[in-house]
Amino acid sequence: MSLFISHFILGLLVLPCAYLVALVTLFIQRRRTGLLLSLMCFVTAIGLGIWAISQSRSSTAGIGMLFLPFIGVAAGSLAWGFANLRLAQNAPLRILAGLCLVALLGIFAWEINGGWQTIQLNKNRDAAQQARTARIAQHKTTLMQLLAQNKGEEAAALTQFIAQHASDEEALYSALASEYATPAQLDSYARKDDFGLTLTALRNKNCSAATLARIYRTHTYPNYFLQAVAAHAHTPPDILREIFRQSPRPIGGLDSWLAANPATPVDIVQHLSDSHDIQVLQNVLQNPQLDCAMLNRARLAVAASNRPDDNYSVNQIAYLQPQLCRH
Question: Model-level pTM?
């Protein structure tokens, strides 16, 4: 596989270079028919390809850039072939010139259509997301009104709401985010295949340690929920310790979430108080386990960071100093 990749990368470099060398050679030999057209089509094909790829929001769309040199060379070669063959006396060669033109226009049309289709797809997705967001907001309003009408019986009202909307994913988002959702209800929906509902359940402060541990230990894609697990106050300390020790980190920002979590083992908070990441230090300064020793370590770490004058950190340290370091 590595040999194939190395040959592929070599081809990416060699093919367009060979094409340009061929154009220069033909120019020097005064065989200049179609050279300008060829070069223009080469550049146009690559430009259209870049435009089409840039319309995509996919994180892997950039891979398509690797193939643009091949597409450019193909377009340039077809343009040169058309420009030269159309002048031939032989009818079959003139027919071949026509085929080159059709193929060239086909490349341009394919690239334009790809970009256009991506634009339309983005518009449709945006419209669908806006409509979905509006429905979620409406369900949230309905639920808030229901809870307000059932003071003292909010848990029962929420249970009824969930039962009535058991198959309505958009309504369940609001229900699972409610402070009245029970650990059992949250665990039930964290067992579904819907990643969004599971994540919403895990983010609820009522989510149980057992649910958090189950998702972390057994889910097919635990990294999708890693931030929520690292930030939750009910996450078992042994799991928080495992997350901290992971190397390389599967996702960014974990130290920040661990630093703010009151359930994070104190030795880890102590370690994080030496961080030079200002976001991590800001969260350490909010952790209820913070003591005088960690505060002083955080003060030195802030001074050594790339933002030693960070307004929040400086003010928070000044505020906490007399409370935590009385002696």
Answer: 0.71
